Amino acid sequence: MNIGFAMCGSFCTYEKVFDAMQTVCGIHTVTPILSHSACTIDSRFGTASEHRATVQKICGCEPLCSIEDVEPIGPKKLLDALVIAPCTGNTLAKLAHSIADTPVTMAAKSHLRNGRPVVIAVSTNDALAGAAENIGKLLARRHYYFVPFGQDDPRNKPTSLVADFTQVLPALEAALEGRQLQPILLG
Question: CA 183 to CA 177: how far, in whole Å?
Answer without folding.
Answer: 16
